[in-house]
Amino acid sequence: MSLHPMIAALRKHKSGVVLIALQIAITLAIVCNAIFIISQRIDRVNRPTGMDESNLMLLTQQWVGAPNDSAPGAANKLDAMLQEDLATLRALPGVASVTSINSFPLLNSSWNGGVSTTAETILNSDTIMSTFYFADEAALKTMGLRLIAGRDFTKADVVHMGFRDNADRPIAIISKALAEQLYPGSNGNVVGKPIFTNGSTAPTTIIGVVERLQSPSTGTWGSRFAYNSTIFPVRLNAAFSRYAIRTQPGQLNNVLKAAPQALYRTNPMRVIDESMVKTFAEMRSEAYRADVGMAVLMGMICFILLAVTAAGIVGLTSFWVQQRTKQIGIRRALGATRGQILHYFQTENFFIASLGIMLGALLAFGLNQLLMRQYELPRLPLYYLPIGALVLCVLGQFSVFGPARRAAAVPPAIATRSA
């Protein structure tokens, strides 16, 4: 089929051609970037924490009238209260393991700091960011972390520390991701090597490496050190405490109700409301609620844009068919088959879609550059464009099929009598 008659016909409908081409271009640019954002959000939501997330809960409580941790003797009293709570929780039916911990993956409340391999670089920009977890000897068991090198903490390793203390931390367990950044090429074999951390005046010896442990932050700013984690054998003494609890299978809901009641019986001078007692499944849902909402919103935008583009193609093609009824009849009278008429309109739509796709590719990269500068979005992968182009081409062909069939069904005799 020669394109010359088609181009000549389209010149008579320049505004319609420009409108459809621009609509396809804008749709391609927005849909490609929206789908990319959706994929980024889905990847973030599905990130593994490194923990065994089943049968896991977190309880946060606030002491009432607790001594200030900087007062003389307060640290010992707070530690005694914390250990009393741990003993109470561990004695509950259905509890498999409990650890006191300052924060938790996906909690969005974290203690972060710099980590380095030398004392000289800990004070400058060469430090590597890490999340600091303070927990006792039951941390790995309770969280379900996989130790891939070295050993776990023992009860003798655990010390207690005030919330504002900058005490030395002789030993630590770190994540594999942090180990590979500190000692490139080590493949996690860093047991016995030293690290230096903010707030400590002496080196810390790595005694173990866990396969993975996610940081509490789910924000974009924390993505660059999402799996850089350091665990210190420390019971943190403060006016509040957090307890990670692993229950026996099928006992999570029972422990969820019983744990606050048991703590109140031990010491009623505390506050525990419903928002402070959560299963890890609830924590995951809350942490990624905004990401899920964004993915749903972007999906709706894509659907609406595609629907509007399809409706525009159908409407404009129907208008063109109505205007060209006489010409179609003449072609039918000269021997054009229904298939040829149908093929003409489909080819015409493909030509317009191709113009829109070429412009849309440029717009897609331009929009991605803007998003990269403003929102730190990664670069749009090249394969998104041919996939988007294919989707819009198929959408265009389906949309034009109905009006094209009506054009092909025009009887030659009726068409030639049209005004």
Describe this structure in words.
With 419 residues, this protein is an alpha+beta fold. The chain folds into 2 domains: 3-45 and 290-416, no CATH class; 65-268, no CATH class. The protein has helices at residues 3-11, 14-45, 74-90, 139-143, 176-182, 252-266, 280-287, 289-323, 325-333, 338-375, 384-408, 412-416, and strands at 56-63, 95-100, 112-116, 128-135, 147-150, 159-162, 171-175, 194-197, 204-210, 229-237, 240-247, 270-271, 277-279. It has a 6-stranded mixed barrel with strand order 3-4-10-7-9-8. Strands 1, 2, 11, 12 and 13 form a 5-stranded antiparallel sheet that branches. Helix 2 packs across helix 10 (338-375) and helix 3 (74-90) packs across helix 6 (252-266). The longest helix has 38 residues, at 338-375. The mean pLDDT is 88.
Number of structural units classed as domains: 2
Strand order of the largest sheet: 3-4-10-7-9-8
Q: Shape, please?
A: elongated
Q: Spell the H/E element sequence.
A: HHEHEEEHEEEHEEEEHEEHHHHHH
Beta-strand content estimate:
15-25%
Q: What's the main sheet like?
A: 6 strands, mixed, barrel
Structural class: alpha+beta
Average the pLDDT over all residues and give the rounded result. 88
- Into which percent range does the helicity of residues fall? 40-55%
Poorly predicted segments: none
Distance separating the two termini = 28 Å
Rg over C-alpha atoms, rounded to the nearest angstrom: 32 Å
Total of DSSP H or I helical runs spanning 4+ residues: 12
